[in-house]
Design a protein that fits this description.
alpha+beta; 20 helices; 15% strand; 40% helix; 614 residues
Length: 614
């Protein structure tokens, strides 16, 4: 056979192999719906706190003193986020895996739902956040022989081992080991070892669990079902998520970046990440909740993911912070911060004979911190350069890690320069392309640099800064804002409708320029007093697609932005943004700039300048 035919054959076979690998996998469907269940116990986020979880199980009578199943036909629903932030996720998994078998034999059921932290560990993106995986959790999911070998090495490095082991305080050696594992966690090769070993047993077992289930007329999911996913059958939700996770699991094992169109995985409104049911205003969102439940043929939904009392709850919902139910008891929120990482509020939701009762208690006395009250600064009182200087130099007085809602899990930073107290968001995730799920604070910096070059002025000031040894983008928080989604839902009329509409058209042009996809309406913020409009969250921007966003047609633009687009040279853009984006992203950006200018030129030719430029 001629060599060129052999080479062509190899290329075709290689292509077929890759195609087959990333075709949606037809995972076996698992049961998603149960009827006629008399008693249900639901428990929210555990986050590695084995002791608290055991206390809950014993308190509600699910297990006896030997931790054996003792609840007969009762159904236990654990709604996800067993992992991260705490140390003992593996012990929780081992307990649940055993209880599943024991409950089944007794006529009961143990349902373990996937949370966003299980998703992140299976796919390996958990290491994007420096505080998620603790050193003890990291060690626990490494291969047993590797862990034992390393700990023997740690012992050999101790000159006073016998003295330490004879000490009555066992935490001394434990603390030493933890420090050693923390240092090893910086090794990215060990990240791969961790993920692949985790997926051998626990990841594989998690793929047999569901994302959402329905018991009687009650829906259970980690974050809650959004309007979009409520239109999917439950079976499809579970099967597609299982397939996408499995594709990532196999890709990780083979060291390949999966190229696939995600439908659920890592989507902001997926059942694992959605926070709308916990955060939306009840008055304006109740009809949406009714519609979601109607589509699901359910009366109640039980969710977790958003700790009640968490900083992510908006200020205008302060009166609702201590409530565990919303929307006339159609939504039950059961994440009370069970883990010591949060508030140590142990809890479970008890359902029997059609009645819901939330039981909760504190593991120990909890002292509320003094609230941080930002200084009252009206928009326009300080210019951009002043804010940038403030961000760069103001003292950090408090760091609340992963306190801002969203997949990027930004930190909330309290700042004080001696004159003003202000809040800011700090993004630390830095995963750029060619990652299949890019998410980086560097794209935030690139978008802001482009904003300044164009005089766009709708991105709140941000600066690169290092906080607690971690680099990221620090962005000032514009106080007293609401999202465009809320404005549309309330049908709120701006004081100047023309200026408001024009601002949205400008934002649409900028979004096309940086190609931010998918678009979320709550990323467009409206200041309540001034009705100034801001655009935030560009951590997934600069898609290397050289075309404009198909769903966001450009119709109009300001004269200022149009002129600046024409005058801004490619060389200046390259000089300013090459610090943050790669050559492919840069090339696509420059091509989109040309397309935007041509689109506006054509519109002006067809409709006249007055109809297009404002």
């Amino acid at each position: 056979m001629p060599n060129f035919i052999k080479n062509i054959t190899k290329v075709i076979l290689s292509g077929l192999l890759i195609t087959c690998l990333f075709l949606p996998m037809q995972a076996d469907s698992k049961q998603s719906v149960w009827e006629g269940v008399e008693r249900i116990i639901a428990v929210g986020d555990i986050h590695g706190d084995y002791e608290h979880f055991v206390e809950i199980l014993q308190k509600c009578g699910l297990v006896d003193e030997k931790l054996k199943w003792s609840a007969g036909k009762t159904h236990l629903v654990q709604t996800g986020d067993i992992m991260d932030r705490g140390d003992h996720a593996r012990r929780v998994f081992d307990l649940l895996m055993r209880l599943q078998k024991e409950a089944e034999e007794a006529g009961g059921k143990v349902h373990v739902l996937l949370g966003n932290h299980e998703e992140m560990n299976i796919t390996g993106i958990v290491f994007r956040q420096p505080t998620y995986v603790t050193p003890k959790q990291f060690a626990s999911f490494l291969p047993d022989d590797f862990r034992e070998k390393k700990e023997n090495e740690f012992r050999e490095q101790l000159t006073n081992l016998s003295e330490i082991e004879s000490n009555s305080d066992p935490t001394i050696l434990e603390s030493y080991f933890e420090t050693k594992w923390e240092n090893l966690m910086k090794n990215k090769k060990l990240h791969i070892l961790y993920v692949n070993n985790f997926n051998k047993v626990y990841g594989k077992w998690l793929l047999d669990q569901n994302v959402v289930i329905k018991i009687n007329d009650i829906i259970f999911s980690h974050g809650g079902i959004s309007e979009k996913y409520a239109q999917w059958p439950l079976q499809k939700l579970n099967d597609v998520m299982r397939s996408e996770l499995n594709t990532h699991r196999i890709a990780n094992k083979r060291g390949i970046i999966p190229r696939m169109k995600r439908q659920i995985l890592y989507m902001p409104d997926s059942p694992l990440w959605n926070r709308e049911l916990a955060l939306k205003e009840e008055k304006t969102y109740s009809h949406v909740v009714d519609s979601i439940l109607e589509k699901l043929d359910a009366k109640v939904m039980v969710i977790a993911h958003t700790p009640v009392g968490s900083p992510v709850i908006p200020e205008n919902q302060k009166d609702e912070r201590d409530l565990r139910t919303r929307f006339d008891e159609k939504i039950w929120m059961i994440d009370t911060g069970i883990s010591d990482f949060y508030y140590g509020i142990l809890s479970y939701l008890h359902y029997e004979n059609g009645e819901f009762i939330m039981k909760e208690w504190r593991a120990e006395e909890y002292v509320e911190e003094e609230p941080f009250e930002p200084s009252i600064i009206k928009p326009g009182d300080v210019d951009r350069e002043d804010v940038e200087y403030y961000l760069k130099n103001a003292a950090v007085v408090k760091v609340s890690k992963e306190a801002v809602p969203g997949r990027t899990a930004a930190w909330e930073i309290n700042l004080d320069d001696g004159e003003f107290k202000r809040r800011a968001m700090f993004k630390v995730v830095d995963v750029t392309r060619p990652s299949s799920i890019p998410d980086s604070y560097k794209y935030e910096l690139a978008a802001y640099a482009l904003d300044k070059l164009l005089g766009f002025g709708r991105i709140p000031p941000l600066m690169e800064r290092e906080i607690e040894g971690t680099k990221g983008s620090l962005q000032i928080r514009v106080e007293k804002c609401f999202g465009l989604d809320e404005q549309k839902m309330k049908n709120a009329t701006p004081p100047d409708p023309t200026a408001f509409a024009n601002a949205l058209e400008e934002i649409n042009v900028f979004e096309n320029l940086v190609y931010i996809d998918p678009k979320e309406l709550d990323d467009i913020l409206i200041q309540r007093e001034s009705w100034e409009i801001y655009r935030v969250d560009f951590s997934e921007a600069f898609n290397p697609n050289p075309n404009l966003i198909p769903e966001q047609k450009i119709k109009r633009c300001s004269k200022k932005l149009y002129q600046n687009l024409q005058e801004l040279s490619d060389e200046v853009i390259k000089a300013r943004l090459s610090l943050y984006i790669n050559e492919e992203e840069m090339s696509a950006l420059l091509n989109r700039k040309i397309l935007i200018i041509k689109t506006l030129e054509k519109l002006i030719e067809e409709k006249g300048e007055e109809a297009v430029l404002f």
